Write the structure tokens for this entry.
Amino acid sequence: MRITAKTALAVVAVDQFSKLAVVFGLGLRHRYVIEVMPPYLNFRMAWNRGVNFGFLANGTEVSRWLLVAVALGISAWVWRWVKGEGHGTGARIAAGLLIGGAVGNVIDRVAYGAVADFLNMSCCGFDNPFSFNLADVGVFFGALGLVLLVKRQNTP
């Protein structure tokens, strides 16, 4: 379980450092947009009070704390599940990515009332209006890794 904990802590650290550096250090929270390598990478500020694409973003304190509880509950369940026998290193790392990403976004909800999203990527004539953060990347690749690695490990 050390690899899961180390991975989760690394994701939380990188996520929170990136948010402090870009959102607060570079002043994105006041500038709203910083072109980095347009159109491929820009920093575009978005305070997400919901989940993906603003779903459940009604802005109430009840929904804020409900989302915190759900993220922590899922993280605890994944931690307990991956602790069981039969899970290889890849699955444990994937679980750490997912847990670290969820906890990174929980920290934002508790500290700021919303998740700080700032990465915006577009390509090939498609102008993506949505922003995300490194915690979201951890959740995505962690969930994908669990789906792919656990199936592969349990197949005869």
User: Anything to note?
Assistant: The longest strand covers residues 41-48. The chain is about 60% helix and 10% strand.
